[in-house]
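Chain A, query sequence.
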Amino acid sequence: MHATLPLLRDSDFPAIKRAELKTVQVNMGYRCNQSCLHCHVNAGPKRKEAMNRETAELVLAYLRQSRAETLDITGGAPELNKNFRYLVAEARKLGVHVMNRCNLTILNEPGQEDTAEFLANHQVEVIASLPCYLKENVDGQRGKNVFENSISGIKKLNALGYGRENSGLLLNLVYNPTGPYLPPSQQSLESDYKRELAKYSVTFNNLFTITNMPIARFGSTLVSKNQFDDYMTLLKLAHQDNNLENVMCRSTLSIDWQGYVYDCDFNQMLGIPIPLAKKPRPHLQDLMAVNLEGNAIAIADHCYGCTAGQGSSCGGALE
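Chain A, predicted structure.
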């Protein structure tokens, strides 16, 4: 795999600083039942990295101390971590809103038969990857039969109330482009998704469009196809200054499976730690008495992926 960090370091991206912390995003490990081409985590079935109970306890302690409103849990497939349910249940006891980034197919895996019910019982918001509403596009990006298994996962969630009006159980889908281009209008694409997925008798609340970052598998593929420079040019030409105010790194803190701290999930995968005086690689335990508001955010050229066009964040378009 081609390393993309050396191609991103020399950046003219505008300097930005942290605002009030609202979301703690936690990566519980890189093991996954899928190996998607666009995955910026390089997740897959053979990955062994997994958050232990001690680190999960530290996350809970930080939630208490920081008073963050939301815990955003990701992976890999976070449901495969043995501490996943403990972290969810304890965070909900604290009154924290919990979001689970689910690939949908995990709900059909052996040992995960009751996962959808667990999520519903704890009122967890599900943010589910479905890069297209067409079977051929999804299977081409994520593997054979993934579309069919994803629809099955949505049906399980729908049966529990997810995606249904006034149920209080949010099911939001995520679109990623299948190639080196920007997502279309989030609003118009959501209408297309709802129309096309209705043919399978499934429903959801919102669609989030997320730009593919020129890092990890996707970035390496761009390098292999000699498309990296063209994609970076596309991102830079589409940069919108007004998106800087709402980029996710201003209000989100990213924690890796070992408890090390980053400004965002993408910096985590590139190994670019949060800037903190006298701490070259800050750990969550270093932040227990630290107010990060006003702290400089570590930047590189991949940051243009968040400010291009309509903007992109873990919550979809910024505009």
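The chain has a mean pLDDT of 92. The chain has eleven helices and eight strands.
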